[in-house]
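Our platform keeps sequence and structure together, in a single record for each protein. Such a record has a labelled line for the sequence and another for the backbone structure tokens. The tokens are whole numbers drawn from a learned vocabulary of local backbone shapes. The remainder of this section carries one protein's record, kept here as part of the documentation:
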Amino acid sequence: MTLRLNLAALTSLELERLLGVDAARQMQPDLSAARLARRPLLGHRFQTELNLVAVPERTWGATPEDAYQLRQQRAQLEGAGLSFLGTFALDALTGQRFLSAYLSTGKNVLVALRWSEARKQDTPAVQLISWLRDELAGTQALVSWNTRLTPTLEGSPAVVVKEYPDLDPPQLLGVHLTRVKNHGKAESVSSLLEFESIFQRLWEANIVAWKARGVLMENRK
């Protein structure tokens, strides 16, 4: 049994992000028929596990500008005293699938410098993640980015994502720590294994939300 993407459950914006504007328009007759009949329109298989695969260091960046931004943001993260865990690829993702992993001094924030090695993808950006010890008003985790996001699928409402595109990494960390303080306490993370576990739990929270919307469906064939 595998999970498949149900195109009929996606919003117009999600379809355009996934397929492109022209392809989404061409699919409208099939989508309308599926929705009218209340039946799914199955797309590609969906990977449920998200694993960090270690990759050797090299000169990163799909363009000279991306390479410059990566060097600059890495220097800022290291200057903030963060602990470097390594460089990895997220095997279930496209887009910003590469990351350099760090831990904050207080070990309650996962820091990921994310980027793509494909041209015309999102530029390098820093993602901060904290998993709350106690769920507060339905919130399980806090995520902060220093970029504007264009996610293909809208994520779980239990994961509150904020964007701060004008902040450098140290400033972003300060804002994120204030968010964590306002929500209580976050789980401590002190190893790569725990870092990967938090990423997997974040992925699983999204999968639960997508299944609830009917975006992901079980396919027994």
